[in-house]
Design goal:
Helices cover 29% and strands 5% of the residues.
């Protein structure tokens, strides 16, 4: 099966250990693993939780976790209100799309073309 050619004109990403395509390629080149323990507070476990009971219910907390995003994300420049309390996946997607447009040479502050993106994310509810 063959597919028509695809042109990649701009890149952006938010991944564990990489907030840009350059950081991703450096990790790949250097053979880095970004698997780590879950950041403190990620799962919403309250301080008085029975840790031994939780340990029996959880196989492990090793995974690829996006950290430090709040240091690079700017909610300015979007034509919609961006609430920092939104699901992080939504904010990551906005950021990566904006960076891809910038990488493609688009002036997103001046160019006001219309477009739409519909995002969906299925995840388990967090306990507070």
């Amino acid at each position: 099966m063959t597919f028509p050619p695809v042109a990649i004109i701009g890149q952006g990403c938010v991944l564990p250990g990489a907030s840009s395509p350059d950081e991703l390629w450096k990790m790949v080149r250097d053979g880095c693993s970004v698997l780590n323990h879950a950041p403190a507070g990620l799962w919403g476990v309250y301080p008085g939780a029975d840790r031994e009971a939780l340990a029996r219910e959880t196989l492990h907390d090793i995974g690829g976790y996006v950290t430090g995003f709040e240091k690079i994300f700017s909610p300015h420049g979007f034509r919609i209100p961006v609430d920092p309390g939104l699901d992080p996946v939504f904010l990551w997607t906005l950021h990566a799309a904006r960076e891809a447009l910038r990488d493609a040479g688009r002036d997103i502050e001046r160019e006001r073309t219309r477009g739409a993106v519909i995002l969906g994310n299925l995840s388990y509810q967090r306990r507070a």
